[in-house]
């Protein structure tokens, strides 16, 4: 069994420690550990985090392998410091049966770069009409616990109620893409000053907030767990804060792009900024940062949404919605949350590893960096500065809004159960 000694990294209390990995496990955390026959990774000045966990990744396989595959998506995840991702169900065919979720699960096992936990669709074909086979997906080898029609909102209140009732039996959770469809017909961007100036159809905040309000009430009524995907407005934060104050089982995520970018960027008409939910205002961005800092928003989730250039390099109205995010997520969180003093690295571990694993009830991930735990680890150099170059992405797609931007920090090493998937910032 191979041994690795990570020497002199900062661990989450801020102390400097050596970490010895033996096989798949953290054998020892201490000072001045003997290297012996271990491979040494010099980590002075670097932060050692538990392997990151993404609750919201679009891997596109099966069906859209021109955008991403499980292999290319898990490579991108490893480069971004992730050791586990939850794969969204809006594939072709939709992941609405035990057969499809098992296929994705198996492809994840074969990839070897990052664990893949499939998410199951809530309704057949994401059509919002008929509940999918939630129980069969849960009982399958994929062990699905998170269900979502992401890309679409479960807008029928009765279907949402039934889904919440159903998943309660096995402590599952429904992850809602909150978008009232009638209020967003023809919408192209956030509804506000910029949409009025550009004459583009607006996507009002209330379309998101009204569904969140309904769903936290439904979750409370049923006594079940609901998770809200990609919160994007200050009003959504207020509703989640209120629901949590009632003690209801409500969790929420925010994407890196909603922590950094605003709808002002749509003035460029560059479709790289077209995303669902849309980029909002500066006031929304600040409210989201504050909510992630105070724990109202539980976690960061990438909503990594790869699209081929034909679907993005076109006029705004015709372009697909979504951005890749796995390979830049931690840097954007460092810039918006750490370098601003809103979160320390221990809190980043909480929001990007512990809590997403907890929400997904994912075993073996989101564990403390201590002896006896699985060696799922991410080493980050926070002093690094570099320009984002999508040509170097491991993802099959290039639709990043950060091309040419300087972002801080870099994942130097990722370890999946003791095996290096990334070494010196490159895929192993
Ligand atoms: O921007 C988005 N892209 N939002 C979604 O909800 C779906 C996603 C996708 O699948 O491309
Ligand atoms: Zn979504
Ligand atoms: Zn999504």
UniProtKB/TrEMBL annotation:
Enzyme type, top EC level: hydrolase
Keyword Cytoplasm (UniProt): no
Pathway: Pyrimidine metabolism; UMP biosynthesis via de novo pathway; (S)-dihydroorotate from bicarbonate: step 3/3
Family to which this protein belongs: Belongs to the metallo-dependent hydrolases superfamily. DHOase family. Class I DHOase subfamily.
HAMAP family (UniProt xref): PyrC_classI_B
Domain Dihydroorotase catalytic: 45-233
Binding residues for substrate: 58-60, 90, 276, 307
Protein origin, superkingdom: Bacteria
GO molecular function terms listed in the Swiss-Prot or TrEMBL record: dihydroorotase activity
CDD domains: DHOase_IIa
The protein's name in its UniProt record: Dihydroorotase
Metal-binding among keywords: yes
Alphabetical keyword list: Hydrolase, Metal-binding, Pyrimidine biosynthesis, Zinc
Cofactor info, note text: Binds 2 Zn(2+) ions per subunit.
Pfam families reported for this sequence: DHOase
Catalytic activity line of the entry: (S)-dihydroorotate + H2O = N-carbamoyl-L-aspartate + H(+)
Residues engaged in binding Zn(2+) 1: 56, 58, 150, 303
Residues annotated as binding Zn(2+) 2: 150, 177, 230
Function of the protein: Catalyzes the reversible cyclization of carbamoyl aspartate to dihydroorotate.
This enzyme's EC code(s): 3.5.2.3
